[in-house]
């Protein structure tokens, strides 16, 4: 998710409290009168769209080892599976930088596992960038599954953690505290085109911290900030892009199975 500097005055709410076990609470309220989301009663980033209900995540998250047929994108030692790498490895974890990180290999349909955590003090990210532990997984470089500190920060519903950004909020908010490891398990079905015509849209299932939050959700087109974009034909396989958003989100144990 991109939040341009020009919008921060509108978006960035004041510190509300020291709730949530000593963490600050922030609000990024949303917008009015942006593009209508196709097939929905809501507009993009609608300010009064209902928030996903918060539920308690499991007490612990087990790190899931890759199966024998998986392609290991990151094992704690090397970024060789990525190109144009400007990110760093600290204590066996990838630390996100300002710019993004793309896989060398292109993917279509897949099952993917990754683990991530936002900065332990969310106020650092908020004060520097207004990003609140912000990153994202751009599948095929086009379709974003949001990564965000939705434990400490209330953002517009379609921008919360595990949202299909700007389109579909997660069924529930199952975020853990900032600084704690979280997991995504993603099953993705790529869109199919016949020439320039869309035959079938992309679909995605996301399990966040062991809880189903996107259930075979239809992706409505490429995701973007403050707008809706229809599908445009593209190759059946494309690299996966990990968003850099000037927030030191960390990643570990990333693997993928082609389907």
TrEMBL record:
GO terms for molecular function: hydrolase activity. Residues 70-257 form the 3-keto-alpha-glucoside-1,2-lyase/3-keto-2-hydroxy-glucal hydratase domain. Keywords: Signal. Residues 1-19 form the signal peptide. The keyword Ribosomal protein does not apply. Pfam families: 3keto-disac_hyd (PF06439). This is DUF1080 domain-containing protein. The lineage of its organism: Bacteria, Pseudomonadati, Verrucomicrobiota, Opitutia, Puniceicoccales.
């Amino acid at each position: 998710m991109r939040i341009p500097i020009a919008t921060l005055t509108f978006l960035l709410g004041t510190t509300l409290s020291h709730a949530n076990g000593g963490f600050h609470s922030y609000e990024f309220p949303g917008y009015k009168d942006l593009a209508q989301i196709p097939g929905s009663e809501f507009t993009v980033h609608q300010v009064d769209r209902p928030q996903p209900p918060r539920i308690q995540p499991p007490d612990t998250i087990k790190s899931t080892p890759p199966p024998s047929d998986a392609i290991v994108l990151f094992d704690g030692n090397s970024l060789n599976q990525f190109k144009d790498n400007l990110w760093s490895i600290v204590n066996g974890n990838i630390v996100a930088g300002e710019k993004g990180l793309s896989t060398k290999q292109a993917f279509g349909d897949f099952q993917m596992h990754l683990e991530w955590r936002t900065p332990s003090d969310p106020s650092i990210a908020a004060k520097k960038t207004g990003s609140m532990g912000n990153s994202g997984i751009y599948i095929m470089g086009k379709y974003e599954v949001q990564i965000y500190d939705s434990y400490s920060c209330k953002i517009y519903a379609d921008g919360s953690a595990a949202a299909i950004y700007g389109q579909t909020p997660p069924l529930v908010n199952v975020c853990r505290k900032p600084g704690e490891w979280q997991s995504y398990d993603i099953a993705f079905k790529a869109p199919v085109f016949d020439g320039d015509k869309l035959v079938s849209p992309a679909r995605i299932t996301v399990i966040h911290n062991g809880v189903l939050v996107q259930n075979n959700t239809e992706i409505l087109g490429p995701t973007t900030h403050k707008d809706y974009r229809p599908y445009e034909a593209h190759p059946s396989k494309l690299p996966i892009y990990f968003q850099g958003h000037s927030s030191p989100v960390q990643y570990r144990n990333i693997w993928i199975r082609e389907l």
